[in-house]
């Protein structure tokens, strides 16, 4: 739950956020990148990006990951200051947009911001559509469900906010009813063994109009622009307007390719 996360960072090269997707020797960081990978690997499952709302799904998810998540995460911390000190210290160091000393006095403003964000979800559903972008559930629903779940389970005193939003609550039930499939657990040792025995399936592609302009094989770092900004180093394998990927070696996991979204990440020459 807290740093250090030696098994995770052996795979990612330092990225420590939750969640990360691993398939063999390919490691996908950030839900934005994970969703697109699942979409391309499992085309026979119902799409996360229905054709009529494909790019909008990314935009709504980006809003949820910033304007909705930030006050939500701040409230999760600020209404739970009796958590174990090790967890508080880890999260306050990680979420550098919150200040431990001023958080208690900011709670009313954070509740206001979070409530205003929830209202946008209610408004998206105002024409009685079942899901945020239309008839079909998509990535926008999954992404917005997360802060609502956070509200229901972590933020003290916030379930009253949800009770004021009937369309949101009905939508929340529909999304929850989609379920979680049939998950099977794996240990960290199994994950590492799977990386060791697999070879990456990533395609090399560095586009000619990439910014910055870099050759494949260049030693680079990729760093989240927002918080948890640990740089990951390796040699450039992919750079497009959608994603960036680097190849790296680790004594425990062998050669792996670590993938990130392009939006929200810094790519720099080492
Ligand atoms: N933009 C990232 C945000 C990820 C994020 O902030 N995750 C939080 C949990 S909600 C986290 O990593 N918390 C600290 C931890 O799990 O160590 C994504 O969409 O995956």
Q: How would you describe the overall organization of this protein?
A:
This protein has 270 residues and is α+β, with helices and mostly antiparallel strands. The protein folds into two domains: 6-42 and 199-269, Glutaredoxin (3-Layer(aba) Sandwich); 51-177, Glutathione S-transferase Yfyf (Class Pi), Chain A, domain 2 (Up-down Bundle). The chain contains nine helices and eight strands. It has helices at 6-12, 31-41, 54-78, 85-94, 103-124, 139-153, 159-163, 166-177, 188-197; strands at residues 20-23, 26-29, 205-206, 219-224, 232-239, 243-250, 254-261, 265-269. Strands 1, 2, 3, 4, 5, 6, 7 and 8 form an eight-stranded mixed beta sheet that branches. Strand 1 and strand 2 form a beta hairpin. Helix 1 packs parallel to helix 9 (188-197) and helix 3 packs antiparallel against helix 5 (103-124). The longest helix has 25 residues, at 54-78. The radius of gyration is 20 Å and the shape is globular. The two termini are 30 Å apart. The relative contact order is 0.17. The mean pLDDT is 97. Glutathione is lined by residues 16-18, 30-32, 65, 94. Glutathione binds next to helix 2.
Gyration radius, rounded: 20 Å
Briefly note the CATH topology name of the largest domain.
Glutathione S-transferase Yfyf (Class Pi), Chain A, domain 2
The amount of helix comes to: 40-55%
Instruction: Please tally the β strands and state the result.
Output: 8
* Whole-number total of structural domains: 2
Structural class: alpha+beta
Order of helices and strands: HEEHHHHHHHHEEEEEE
